[in-house]
Design brief:
alpha/beta, Rossmann fold, GMP Synthetase, Chain A, domain 3, 4-stranded parallel β-sheet, EC 6.2.1.26, Putative o-succinylbenzoate--CoA ligase, AMP-dep_synth/lig_dom, ANL_N_sf, ATP-dep_AMP-bd_enzyme
């Protein structure tokens, strides 16, 4: 770890940003004979024989420099995108650095995308080069001759060092990420030298934690941002690729992180386990970025770990709940939960001081407090837009604000509350039904429910019904009819439209590659799926 004064000196470096951060850090730490440690549970593709899983910053620079030379030998040009379709490993970081060294930039493709969707996404993004394993390349369809397919092994044969680095400008593209596919085919999202580093410049001095455990998908901008944020502070980070609950809990016991960072789905998975069986005492902070987390899951996690009060160690940790999305290089809102705080009910807190947030109606007018509307934000950390899709980019901009796709309201004390995604709220004859708001209330008030998703589906006769997709807690048994009565009693208490139907289903169904429940997929599938247990079919 380094002092706040040292951090300030690093981030004051001329032209530091996402495209060259590693070299600024390498210069600073090398001069002082020190380096933060980067470890991983799955070795890099760079040298399989060596099985390298521990790095200092200088190691990353040397490896990426060699790969930069390989990309030049391959024929990659400045400002040209290269698609990376890997397993969920540190290789995304190494190739990110290597491509930015030469003024190119990667297209990150999550390895959990199906080969068909991945190929469509890479082709739509204009990739002329696709770097992937032999197995993945063989699985891709429509491999036309205008794209070169290269394995990491083949790329390694071309390695040689480079003598100079590309000089980035603020608006240079440094990464194309992609959305989770909530509304269809994943969309390529543009990040620039400035936009991806803006939140880091603003927040790095406020962050805590000496040993970070990262469980973000490493093909996601959130993973890159966390790595940049951590290394700039001189802290250590472990890149976790194996993401079963057992593997995660085992890593926590082995490396003893004080901060654990992930998307909400990981924390849901951990809450399925008996955490009393594991040593979680090292943890002081759980950090989530994405959708708001559910109160029962947060309360379970913060009952473990530790925090300090007046220098005295106390039981219980903090949960930092950040609202973010693929279109933002850094989170937008933050709500910090502690063992003795009680601001839940999908409260997303307040925006960071460097973000202008507003709640808008359909015409872009700013709404008053306590009215539900579309969340819009203005910040340098917001994406430039969607690659090769100006129309969709412009549709997401209203009066200077970028629409996040969320429906929220603000209370008189300035706190924002999330009620639904704009694509998922349900129009009923009795008025709007905000699905995530309902889900939060039901999880809080019905002990048998572990997880729940509420969707509207069309019946064969054209009518609409509202269905609750439910995962019960382990060991709990309740009939769909009885549970439906309990759910609707909770809805009547709030004067919300009622639920028509119950389906018991594993929570692992209909997930996107980042762990999001894709309600679009549920809606598409429901009418044809006769295998589910429903109220009528119990």
């Amino acid at each position: 770890m380094i002092t706040p004064e040292e951090i300030k000196k690093i981030i004051s470096s001329e032209n530091i940003g996402a495209g060259n951060f590693i070299h600024h850090l390498n210069n600073y730490f090398s001069e002082r004979g020190m380096s933060p440690k980067i470890t991983c549970d799955v070795p890099t593709y760079d040298n399989p024989e060596e099985e390298k899983s521990q790095f200092e910053i200088n190691d990353l620079v040397k490896i990426s420099d060699q790969l930069s030379g390989a990309y030049i030998a391959l024929g990659v040009q400045k400002r040209e995108p290269v698609a990376l379709y890997f397993d969920d490993t540190i290789d995304y970081l190494i190739h990110f650095i290597a491509l930015n060294n030469i003024g190119s930039f990667p297209i990150f493709v999550n390895g959990d995308l199906s080969s068909h969707i991945a190929m469509s996404f890479m082709r739509n993004s204009g990739a002329k080069f696709i770097i992937s394993t032999e197995e993945r390349i063989n699985s891709l369809d429509d491999k036309s001759t205008d794209i070169q397919f290269i394995t990491p092994k083949e790329l390694n044969l071309l390695k040689k060092p480079i003598s100079s680095y590309y000089q980035h400008h603020a608006d240079d593209i440094i990464l194309l990420g992609h959305t989770s596919g909530t509304t269809g085919l994943p969309k390529p999202v543009i990040f620039t030298h400035e936009s991806m580093f803006h939140g880091i410049l603003k927040e790095v001095s406020k962050q805590r934690g000496k040993q970070i455990l990262s469980m973000f998908p490493h093909s996601h901008g959130a993973s890159m941002t966390l790595i940049m944020l951590t290394l700039t502070r001189g802290a250590a980070i472990h890149i976790q690729s194996k993401k079963t609950a057992f593997d995660i809990l085992d890593s926590i016991e082995q490396i003893k992180p004080d901060t654990v960072a992930a998307f909400p789905k990981i924390f849901v998975d951990l809450c399925r386990e008996d955490l009393d069986d594991w040593d979680l005492d090292s943890i002081s902070h759980w950090v989530s970025t994405g959708d708001a987390n559910h109160e029962p899951h947060i309360r379970k996690l913060i009952s473990y770990g530790h925090h300090f009060v007046d220098g005295k160690k106390e039981r219980g940790s903090f949960f930092i709940d950040n609202l973010g999305s693929s279109e933002f290089a850094f989170a937008m809102f933050r709500n910090i939960h502690q063992p003795k705080t009680d601001r839940y009910d999908r409260c997303i807190g307040i925006p960071f001081s460097w973000i202008d947030a507003a709640i808008l109606d359909a015409d872009g007018n700013v709404l008053p407090n306590n009215q539900v509307g579309m969340l819009g934000v203005i910040s340098k950390s917001v994406t430039m837009g969607y690659w090769n899709n100006h129309l969709l980019t412009e549709k997401n901009r209203v009066n200077g604000y970028w629409l996040t796709g969320d429906l929220v309201y603000r209370t008189n004390d300035g706190f924002f509350y999330h009620v639904d995604r704009t694509s998922d709220w349900i129009k009923t004859p009795q008025g709007p039904l905000y699905s995530t708001q309902c889900e939060e209330w039901l999880l809080k008030n019905i002990d048998s429910i572990f997880d729940i998703s509420i969707v509207a589906t069309s019946l064969p006769n054209g009518d609409q019904q509202t269905t609750a997709i439910v995962e019960l807690k382990a060991g709990h048994e309740i009939s769909p009819a009885t549970l439906l009565q309990k759910i609707n009693a909770c809805h009547q208490e709030k004067q919300w439209p009622l639920i028509d139907n119950i389906v018991y289903q594993s929570a692992d169904n209909d997930l996107g590659v980042t762990g999001k429940k894709l309600k679009r997929k549920i809606r598409d599938r429901m009418p044809e799926d006769n295998s589910m247990v429903t109220e009528e079919g119990n």
